[in-house]
Amino acid sequence: MNNFRIILALIAFSCVAWGAPIDPSPYDPQPPHQPGRPGVGRPQRPPRPQPPLPPHPPRPGYGDRREIYVGQQMWDQSLDLMRLLNLWSSSGSSIQSVEIWLRPQNTYGNLQLMADGFVEDAQGAYSSVVVLNPRRQLVIGSNVRNLFLNVQGRAYVDRIVVFLGSGSGAYPYPGPGPAPIADEVVLPLYFGNIFQAPSLLEILNASGASQYAGYRLQSITIYGQAMAYRAGVQILANGNLMGKVELANFASAQIFYPNYQLIVGNHLYSLDVITDGSLRLDRVEIRLTRY
Q1: Over the chain, what is the mean pLDDT?
Q2: What span, in angstroms and rounded, lies between the C-alpha atoms of 197 and 277?
Q3: Is the dihedral of CA 117, 122, 124, 128 positive or negative?
Q4: By the 8 A CB rule, do 150 and 156 touch?
Q5: How far apart are CA 246 and CA 189, in angstroms?
């Protein structure tokens, strides 16, 4: 009898082992008898909802922009930005930056941003976009009434964009009246040209330094490179030779310090440099101090 029960148990086990296949779990990654078809035989899980992306934050400090198309070659000209862009309609707004779009050409000029006769920023017209940033807070109708873009030399101006901000701006000035002028200013003048023969270059008016009456000439920095073994730049004040700096045959900067006091509008009425030898003159920086 026991042997008969054992035989019945073996038969039942064989039926279970070799019978129909058992259905896989609904979440098996690869059900049997379905090779190469992942996910067949299981329910599809709905995609997990993604949180919405936050909106792109606005440019800090910028509230409005004014743009004008110029589309012309300019040579030693000035543009009245207050009039052309009707900036007076934004009285109380601060001028954050001025963006100038240029077309490339063989000769390059210098771009100056001037507010009420003072040079706020200057750069060479080397790239397709030049951004000029004021040195101080400029609030339309408060401490700035005139805004000009000066093109020294030659540049093809496509368009000009002025970015405006709130009256507080990025550089708040708590006191009444116009914002104070900096105790020290650095005025760059860009050339980017190669000079083969001696050339006289006027830099006092071209850099805007003549507008800083009462400031003292602290130093003059010459950026350039000698194209031959040796070249230099002579520096003249009021037509008199003050000194000379030598340029190496690789890109470098040489600083000249006057050996006596020169006050703009008092002891200093003209400032020139004379190239001596074959050289590439990149730029000249004039540093002025109030004391």
Answers
A1: 76
A2: 6
A3: negative
A4: no
A5: 19
288 phi/psi in degrees, rounded to 5:
-120, 145
Among 247-256, 260-269, 273-282, the minimum mean pLDDT is found in 247-256
Token readout for 203 is 């830099």
How many other C-beta atoms are found inside a 10 Å radius of the C-beta of residue 113?
28
Domains of the chain are 60-170 (2.60.120.40), 182-291 (2.60.120.760)
Residue 17 has pLDDT above 60, yes or no: no
Residue 211 to residue 139: CA distance in whole angstroms:
20
In 3D space, the residue among 110, 111, 118 whose CA is nearest the CA of residue 264 turns out to be 118
In which element (H, E) is residue 231 found? strand 231-237
Beta strand pairing status for 147-165 and 94-103?
Answer: antiparallel
For residues 135 and 174, the answer to whether their CB atoms sit within 8 Å is no
Token match 């507010």: residue? Answer: 115
| pLDDT (0 to 100) of residue 60 | 38
Q: In whole angstroms, how large is the CA radius of gyration of the chain? A: 36
Full DSSP string of 182-216:
PSEEEEEEEEEEEE-S--EEE-TTTTTGGG-TT-E
Report the helix count and the strand count for the chain, using DSSP H and E. Answer: 2, 14
Burial class (CB in 10 A: 0-12, 13-18, 19+), 11: exposed
Measured from the Cβ of residue 236, the count of other Cβ atoms closer than 10 Å reads 17
pLDDT confidence bin for 81, thresholds 50/70/90: very high
**Interior/surface letters 237-260, b for 16+ CB within 10 angstroms, e for the rest:** beeeebeebebeeeeeebebebee
- State if pTM tops 0.70: no
Residues 96-130 pLDDT 10s:
889 999 887 776 678 889 888 788 888 888 778 88
